[in-house]
Write a structure and sequence with these properties.
InterPro entries: NAD(P)-bd_dom_sf (IPR036291), P5C_Rdtase_cat_N (IPR028939), STEAP_metalloreductase (IPR051267). This is Pyrroline-5-carboxylate reductase catalytic N-terminal domain-containing protein. By secondary structure, the protein is an alpha/beta fold. The protein has a single domain (2-187), classed as NAD(P)-binding Rossmann-like Domain (Rossmann fold, 3-Layer(aba) Sandwich), CATH 3.40.50. It is 35% helix and 18% strand. It contains 7 helices and 8 strands. The chain has helices at 10-21, 48-54, 64-70, 99-106, 121-124, 143-156, 170-187; strands spanning 2-6, 25-29, 44-46, 57-60, 80-83, 111-115, 135-140, 160-163. It has an 8-stranded mixed β-sheet with strand order 3-2-1-4-5-6-7-8, sandwiched between helices. Strand 7 (135-140), helix 6 and strand 8 (160-163) form a beta-alpha-beta unit. The protein is globular.
Length: 198
C-alpha cells in the first residue's frame, strides 16, 4: 500500500521505517524531509503535498498546531488518515477541543482514525519491547476505516487494541497523552506504556 507520512521527526520517522519494513510504499513529507536521505534509506522523501498525493492512506505525525494549519490544503479527500498527533499546547494547558475531532471537522471527507497518540515512538512500532501485552486505544466515526487500521496495528505487533468508539473519545485519548509527559519525568524515560486490566 502507498502510505504518506506527514512529519519527519522522531515519531514520523520511526513509523515510516516500520511501515516500509512491512513492505508498504512509504513517502515522508515535511519541509526538511529531503535533507534526511541518510536517515531514511530506501524511503521516498518529499514535501507534505507530495506525501499526501502519494499516499492511499496518510499518517499525521505532526503536532496538532501544525496539522491544523497544513492538512486542509493537502490531497486528503476520501483517504484514511491515521491521526497519531496531539496539540502541543494541551500537554501543559487545557484541552479545549481534541485534535482528532478538530481535523475531522476541518476535513469532512477524510476517514479519520485516532490511535497511537499516547505511546512512546519506539513502542508504537515495537509493542512487545517491554515483554508485556500493552494496550492501544483506537477511535473513529468510520467503522470500516477503524477495522482496516486495526489490521495494520496487528501487523505492527499490537495485540490488545481497545475500541473506544467514535471520535468523541479523542478528548480522553489526548488527555492520556498529556499524562505521558508527567509519567516520563517520574520514571526517568520513555520506556513505559499502559495495560488495560479488565
Amino acid at each position: 500500500m502507498r502510505i504518506g507520512i506527514l512529519g519527519s521527526g522522531q515519531v514520523g520517522g520511526t513509523v515510516a521505517k516500520k511501515l516500509a519494513q512491512l513492505g508498504h510504499d512509504v513517502m515522508i513529507g515535511s519541509p526538511h524531509a529531503k535533507d534526511k536521505t541518510a536517515e531514511f534509506p530506501g524511503i521516498k522523501l518529499g514535501t507534505a503535498e507530495e506525501a499526501a498525493s502519494h499516499g492511499e492512506w496518510l499518517v499525521n505525525a505532526m503536532h496538532g498546531e501544525a496539522a491544523v494549519e497544513v492538512l486542509p490544503s493537502l490531497n486528503t479527500a476520501g483517504k484514511i488518515l491515521i491521526d497519531i498527533g496531539n496539540f502541543e499546547g494541551s500537554i501543559e494547558g487545557p484541552l479545549e477541543r481534541s485534535l482528532g475531532e478538530t481535523l475531522q471537522q476541518a476535513l469532512p471527507q477524510v476517514r479519520l482514525v485516532k490511535t497511537l497518540n499516547h505511546v512512546s515512538a519506539h513502542l508504537m512500532v515495537d509493542p512487545v519491547h517491554l515483554g508485556k501485552t500493552l494496550t492501544i486505544f483506537i477511535a473513529s466515526n468510520d467503522d470500516e476505516a477503524k477495522t482496516a487500521v486495526t489490521e495494520l496495528l496487528k501487523a505492527i505487533g499490537w495485540q490488545d487494541i481497545f475500541d473506544l468508539g467514535d471520535l468523541s473519545a479523542c478528548r480522553a485519548m489526548e488527555y492520556v497523552a498529556a499524562s505521558w509527559v508527567a509519567i516520563e519525568k517520574a520514571v526517568g524515560g520513555p520506556n513505559f506504556s499502559l495495560v488495560l486490566v479488565r
